[in-house]
């Protein structure tokens, strides 16, 4: 298996954000999708993908419909996606994806987390190059063979296709998202969820004490309402 498989396996061992925060993040995704491409999922592929993710997260249909309706209101906050970069203690690179309606607040908060936890906030481009920006799709495994599907989807940009207990996962470069989404829809293959991830090209193994130092910073960052995802170059410990 490749790096996407190992990355996914490691991420699954970690704690996930509370359901309330998951719904908040999906709500922001809906607003950004509607502002970008309109409220009709049939004509807005990004919104279609967010609705699939909402369903996968068991977000009530009423909440989704209300979020779409609210997003069309011109008074609704317009979230801007901002990427922050820096270093945690012990040389671990940190990449933070945020969606904020107040850039000054978000910058101040992220900087304070680095300062309080002996990290260093970096400049644009200082660590982003250490991560591969990927897209992924999760589809049902019934009636499909992962190896066969991988061969068929290579021409559409797929790099890794593998099976786990949740279904079949497809990984590809970030810019292949629309092409693969369209091909799966053309084949009438149900997309259970989809998204984007940043996979570290290399990881660093730390001692238990050093891991605790890095986790302290990551936890502070993840608690921030503006933060959508946090990625790092620390080697994941499956025993955690």
Rounded average pLDDT: 91
Order of helices and strands: HHHHEEHEEHEEHEHE
What overall form do the CA principal axes indicate? globular
Beta content comes to: 15-25%
Number of strands: 8
Could you describe the largest sheet, including whether it forms a barrel? Answer: 4 strands, antiparallel
Count of discrete alpha- or pi-helical segments spanning 4 or more residues: 8
Our Rg estimate from Cα atoms comes to 18 Å
- Unreliable spans are none
Q: What is the helix content?
A: 40-55%
Strand order of the largest sheet: 3-1-2-8
Quickly give the structural class: alpha+beta
Q: Between the first and last Cα atoms, what is the distance in angstroms?
A: 22 Å
Please name the defining characteristics of this protein.
single chain, alpha+beta, four-stranded antiparallel sheet, cytoplasm, transcription regulation
């Amino acid at each position: 298996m490749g790096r996407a498989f190992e990355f996914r396996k490691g991420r699954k061992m970690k704690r996930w954000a509370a359901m309330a925060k998951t719904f908040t993040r999906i709500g922001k995704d809906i607003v950004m999708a509607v502002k970008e491409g309109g409220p009709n999922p049939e004509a807005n592929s990004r919104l279609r993908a967010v609705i699939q993710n909402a369903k996968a997260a068991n977000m009530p249909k009423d909440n989704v419909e209300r979020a779409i309706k609210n997003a069309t209101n011109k008074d609704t906050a317009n979230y801007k996606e901002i990427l922050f970069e820096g270093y945690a203690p012990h040389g671990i690179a940190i990449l933070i994806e945020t969606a904020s309606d107040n850039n000054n607040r978000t910058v101040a908060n992220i900087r304070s987390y680095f300062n309080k936890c002996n990290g260093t906030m970096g400049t644009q481009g200082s660590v982003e190059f250490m991560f591969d920006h990927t897209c992924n799709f999760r589809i049902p495994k019934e009636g499909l063979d992962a190896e066969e599907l991988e061969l068929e989807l290579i021409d559409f940009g797929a790099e890794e296709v593998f099976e786990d207990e949740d279904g079949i996962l497809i990984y590809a470069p970030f810019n292949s998202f629309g092409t693969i989404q369209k091909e799966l829809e053309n084949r009438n293959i149900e997309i259970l969820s989809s998204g984007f991830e940043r996979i570290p090209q290399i990881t660093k193994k730390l001692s238990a004490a050093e891991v605790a130092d890095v986790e302290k910073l990551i936890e502070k960052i993840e608690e921030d309402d503006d933060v959508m995802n946090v990625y790092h170059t620390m080697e994941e410990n499956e025993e955690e």
